[in-house]
Amino acid sequence: MRSPVPDYLVDVLDAVRSIDDGAPADYIEVLAKADTSRLAVALATVDGEVYAAGDSDVAFSIQSISKPFAYAAAIEDVGLDAVLARIGVEPSGNAFNELSLEDGTHRPMNPMINAGALATHALVAGPDASGPQRVERLRTLMSAMAGRELGYDEAVYEAELRDAHRNRGLAHMLRAGGIITAEAETIVDGYVRQCSVDVTVRDLALMAATLANGGVQPLTGRQVIHRDGVRQVLSVMTTCGMYDAAGDWVSNVGIPAKSGVAGGIIGALPGQLGLAVFSPKLDAHGNSARGVAVCERLSRDMGLHMMDVSQIGRAVVRKLVVTLAGGKGRTGDAIVPVYELRGAVLFGGAELLTRTLAHDLGDANDAGAGHHREATAVILSQLHTHSLNDVATRMLLENLRRLHADRRTVVLVDPDGVLDLTSLDPARRPRVVATDAEAQAVVGGDACRIVASQEDTGR
Amino acid sequence: MRSPVPDYLVDVLDAVRSIDDGAPADYIEVLAKADTSRLAVALATVDGEVYAAGDSDVAFSIQSISKPFAYAAAIEDVGLDAVLARIGVEPSGNAFNELSLEDGTHRPMNPMINAGALATHALVAGPDASGPQRVERLRTLMSAMAGRELGYDEAVYEAELRDAHRNRGLAHMLRAGGIITAEAETIVDGYVRQCSVDVTVRDLALMAATLANGGVQPLTGRQVIHRDGVRQVLSVMTTCGMYDAAGDWVSNVGIPAKSGVAGGIIGALPGQLGLAVFSPKLDAHGNSARGVAVCERLSRDMGLHMMDVSQIGRAVVRKLVVTLAGGKGRTGDAIVPVYELRGAVLFGGAELLTRTLAHDLGDANDAGAGHHREATAVILSQLHTHSLNDVATRMLLENLRRLHADRRTVVLVDPDGVLDLTSLDPARRPRVVATDAEAQAVVGGDACRIVASQEDTGR
Amino acid sequence: MRSPVPDYLVDVLDAVRSIDDGAPADYIEVLAKADTSRLAVALATVDGEVYAAGDSDVAFSIQSISKPFAYAAAIEDVGLDAVLARIGVEPSGNAFNELSLEDGTHRPMNPMINAGALATHALVAGPDASGPQRVERLRTLMSAMAGRELGYDEAVYEAELRDAHRNRGLAHMLRAGGIITAEAETIVDGYVRQCSVDVTVRDLALMAATLANGGVQPLTGRQVIHRDGVRQVLSVMTTCGMYDAAGDWVSNVGIPAKSGVAGGIIGALPGQLGLAVFSPKLDAHGNSARGVAVCERLSRDMGLHMMDVSQIGRAVVRKLVVTLAGGKGRTGDAIVPVYELRGAVLFGGAELLTRTLAHDLGDANDAGAGHHREATAVILSQLHTHSLNDVATRMLLENLRRLHADRRTVVLVDPDGVLDLTSLDPARRPRVVATDAEAQAVVGGDACRIVASQEDTGR
Amino acid sequence: MRSPVPDYLVDVLDAVRSIDDGAPADYIEVLAKADTSRLAVALATVDGEVYAAGDSDVAFSIQSISKPFAYAAAIEDVGLDAVLARIGVEPSGNAFNELSLEDGTHRPMNPMINAGALATHALVAGPDASGPQRVERLRTLMSAMAGRELGYDEAVYEAELRDAHRNRGLAHMLRAGGIITAEAETIVDGYVRQCSVDVTVRDLALMAATLANGGVQPLTGRQVIHRDGVRQVLSVMTTCGMYDAAGDWVSNVGIPAKSGVAGGIIGALPGQLGLAVFSPKLDAHGNSARGVAVCERLSRDMGLHMMDVSQIGRAVVRKLVVTLAGGKGRTGDAIVPVYELRGAVLFGGAELLTRTLAHDLGDANDAGAGHHREATAVILSQLHTHSLNDVATRMLLENLRRLHADRRTVVLVDPDGVLDLTSLDPARRPRVVATDAEAQAVVGGDACRIVASQEDTGR
């Protein structure tokens, strides 16, 4: 059986090929004479599968799509507070090349407009960095996200530098407002370099997938950017990524995104996938005309809208009741409730487990409730738990404390140590084992035997 | 064991009680003299569990928190296109009571500012509705979401109507611009009624949870609002819900939200939960000062930020290999791969299953690949599949087509009919059964027996 | 000989008749169906001569041209400070019907936009006035300026009142901001009445000439509006009269002006004339297309631009030297310098006389200078002095004090008492006479005889 | 007798000395450490008298006060149309250093904000000028206006150039928008030079008086700037000179003005005078705090508000009736009406003469009217006519044509040729003489004698 995904992507490209609106950027000749027949799409899952169609190996300059990655670098290099002190996070309602400074602070409204991107570039690699250090830091970071060494489109770099009057204007303004302290000319040069990095949609899809995957590159597994920085970058892409039509994009497409003047667009859907499109003709907003159409179609066809409720699967709690014929040192059968926590567990999953435990075991002070209130031992299985976020961890530990207070024995099946017990008083820590069989042995005694095992539907 | 969640909520309230900034709204006396010591929080999961702390049974007027619900009603009653023709979706960057019309169209910028909310109210219950019909439609809808009959705070209604100069101004302006056609005075009266609905944080949490649950009221299970409308409402809450600080709220809290002048705030995290807070003192933006603090703390403590990657658990594909000792009419053992799709499945889950099938079974034209390439039958289990979205359904059907083309037998365990097969050519439809045992019998013959069953880790 | 002015005006109308751009206002039918062939111009000098051409006796509704007159009335009735507390004076850069309130104060930007005009109307006739009293106050004032009883165009009044949604919106907003306290509906009704006053270009030209003449109606000589109020009105017409193109109008036409939606425009050139045009088709700015062309042509042809330096004639000082053969009780000839101050004297004229006196008579402490330093008597003639402004009066009195200190006799020829001597110490007051002959008699004795009289060109 | 004007100016300075608000500009040290006790005022009449008080010989950098002069130079050097194509004339409502470009055209809003001033500088001396040529052109022009060679404050120049980040930003932006084509750096350098010209209040008062005098330097009599350019400059100073408070300044002070950051302010009252003030402490708008107070006081005390009706004296028509006892070749007395036109004559004066002639002489077709209808000869005296503007000239010529058509003899007393007769058909030209006596001789014959001469009050 062959996967239908590649075929689907080919179909999507064919469907948008009839769109012939717009024109390539014409402010420099090297972009103006782009081959407007080029069309490509790529999609990378957070576990590293990449699907692509069309001219997916054709390289083009990354342009403004570099902005979120530079923003991520700046947050990494000087800290979020220092970044927020110089660049805001509000949509400007203006075009990308407007100054759009906040009253009072002189901060550019956000890092996705050029003024904010210049201010962001100036923070990369820290306060003492030289121009070349900033540039190399960004190339290296973007390469780590793409999973290969990226280079530059020199023709684009040279043409843009020659004609960068507006960015020079913005940079001098930022210097006047105290937002940048380096030489304006150096910042503009570095920013133009940053924008001239050469990429394919494959690269971009993996870079977007790195954001979607909490900063971990899907193929290399390397934590390229800290998770908190990623959240900030995705937030800003949501409200400011598509220039002056934030609300429209969020309503229609619902994927944090960023476009570039060479015709690229990326989208990063948290926890799911990164996508990238390329087609040089731009619409009136400066976004790739066919690219937008591809994004709208992918979002609709594939249900990628982030407000789509079905996006979010709750972690699953599976309840079993195991009856153990007593093993060594035990007499009689033991009826043991087993709670399996499956998937990526966050508040919802932890809450569901907590609620189930409270329901099944009852309150120690309330003799009547809870169909397992007689159980003296409980098995908690993390075998199929992918991950626990902070709140889930805290809730599980609190559950362990309360079960201990109720004088129940807990055995934790957690071969990978998903649940970090270090903050729990050692005296209250449960026994941790690697397999179900071990857990059963702890409760039922060595060589105990499963007499019955069935899903517990009791409530 | 008692759940720690209520204790946590009490702690959160205690932590913010020291915040004494701000003042209650003072434009009408009935709000100005509110008991500023009131403080409450409630949290409702999408499966209907409600946790609450503080003054969770104290009622207050819903005020602007009614806006997203009225927007949902308008979309339901006249259709999204008709709504978008009259009201935009862009953040205005202005205060809630600014006119903020778009050039050219005269559309209010979005439905969360007063001008847009008045225009929204005018669409409720359709073009021929009377004032009382619009009002009753909204009360009924909000009651259905809260799960109880809601009433009005008459004192608030009368005081606000007396002093509604600004809203009268806005309504006449909208009439002048052709956005509304009803009498301005009638619209203002109805809007003031809508804002005077009396609610508690419990009510609001359930109303928010209804949004978070795709329009299905968690307790009654009724589809109160169509899923597409919910997506639109949540999108607009994301970019416009907290007035002039959209970017800041998305970055810091990351939950689609709406606040009201009486001191309430709701948040709706898609697929997870609804929350509500109440405290009458407002900050400079007009949002409840303690309420904002509670939201920030809940988001941080509970990992509720929608850009937090860990939010989204991928659907799980569980692979087993079952060896069946032949039953009636069979000889020899059959080694049958079993694919269980668990959780809410959307593109990511379907893609993972697809990829797994392609990997295990190999391409029909490629003799070498696939460790199960010899398998003539495959069991596909939807037993633990909560739901399939459109794209997942389409992908699964496509998988069935391709497996059929490869001449493999597929047995589908799907007691609840989660996978809709109607669009599949009857000749290609798999056999559908209700239990694993039935599936095994289909493949291995009646009375076949499981000789071995183990997780398949082959790749 | 017949005056060429009427012929010139006819020529101007003929020249603009080919302009066929624009369309009459179409928001109410009674304006939409205006006879667009109507074309008229009138010009009234500050001494009451009225020239007119075209349909100068056709009446039309005054509309926004009433705004400066209502502003004048408000200043008169509640004082400038109270007016400025509620309405600003800055150009808004927006269309006439924008809200354009100042941040913080909620003041409409200026009284020439609708919001400001509504706020102005509310101040007319003082805080306790009723709606009908405000309306009648304005009709009476405008009638006094036009020099005849003005009435209303009832069809326009009724149609506009029916459709005044936007003005209702503005009025409610102003009430919300505390700028007006009366019922919004009453203010809108009164304002619509104010705008429906029926006028001809003759009326408007005389009303404008009243402004140009410092508030004195040219024909009746009645001081209809206080001079300070007039200055304020003309200042605001200069910067805000032609809506969103203040700078353009000041540069091109250079006459304080105001236009109305029925096709009228007035211009008031301080000290010189009032003009009015009428043609119903409006340009994109909402100003009469032919009317603007007439104004530009009149300004250019007639040199009416207020920054045209040649506008301002300096008051003339005429110096004579009269040799008197001694009359009764005198022996020998007396050579007496005579200083005639001609025209409307303000700082420039007074300064010129002062400088001349200082030059001719020399400093008492400086024996050498001044070719009339021997003169013991000086005749100062105000016979041809039209008026003295405050500074000129103060300077002349100071001259009299200094001449007295220098022990020179001054005789003042001032039959009309143009120079007010009351603030001068009686001991230092000069002898005041009615004719040159009397003055000569005072200096040369009764029955003295002029032996020679010649212009004094000495310097 | 000594003139009281200098004493008055000293009093004004004493009165404002108590104002201690504000602070000197602090963006460069050389301005920040200015001697804030400095205070000076100067006043120059359009005929060249200069009054001064305080530190009137202390030099300071001209700064933004150079803007109107550079604007005048640009208009002179490339023409008004070319200037308007690049720089608008509308008040921006923003601070001086805002970009404030018009949508679409990218034109700076006006030449008084920095962006417009940079664009203006770039036009000086024409399209092919070098940086030094532009700078020298401006220094030379300003020197010609001041009446002495002006130099530079090198310390200010160097400090400002070092810190001109914002102006660099603006210049690069203007280059990006195609408004300037020269190197941004060169324009900024030249503009900083232009702003560093060293002046005293005496210089500035004469420079302003040159504008007030239609471009003619009062002392040298040289036409430094063309009259049309002056009108444009004064118009723009009126609406844009005092930054974001155009309406307020026009209402309160009513004098076209410009301020500079070193503490200077100039005002130019058309036809009357130029004034200049200096005091380094600036108010919140960036204008000299004491300087503004001096301007308000001068305007109020001296009646300088340009909307003050009394500003404008009408030209005077003096009518005499001379009875001549016949001279050589004549018999009997001749009663001859004499019309003297006095002062600067423009439309108003010409209209008054026209009206008088039409009244006195009557219509040729209307036998009854006109008390001088029998007069066969008329004397028109221009002896005291300072000047005639275009419209006055055209009207007088038309009067001559009509008098000729009525078969009356006209004798023109016009020794200086104030009335240009070249456009009049030679056959219709009146006899032109130099003195009243000659005129009488023409009418009454040589050796005729004046029997009676009296003012004609007939009407």
UniProtKB/TrEMBL annotation, chains A, B, C, D:
Catalytic activity: L-glutamine + H2O = L-glutamate + NH4(+)
SUPFAM superfamilies: beta-lactamase/transpeptidase-like
InterPro entries tied to this protein: Beta-lactam/transpept-like, Glutaminase, STAS_dom_sf
TM annotation in the entry: none
GO molecular-function terms, A-Z: glutaminase activity
Positions bound to substrate: 64, 114, 160, 167, 191, 243, 261
EC nos: 3.5.1.2
Enzyme class: hydrolase
Pfam families xref list: Glutaminase
Assigned keywords, A-Z: Acetylation, Hydrolase
Highest taxon in the source lineage: Bacteria
Assembly, per entry: Homotetramer.
PANTHER family, per the entry: GLUTAMINASE
Family: Belongs to the glutaminase family.
Protein name as annotated: Glutaminase
Organism per entry: Luteimonas endophytica
Native organism taxonomy: Bacteria, Pseudomonadati, Pseudomonadota, Gammaproteobacteria, Lysobacterales
Gene name as annotated: glsA
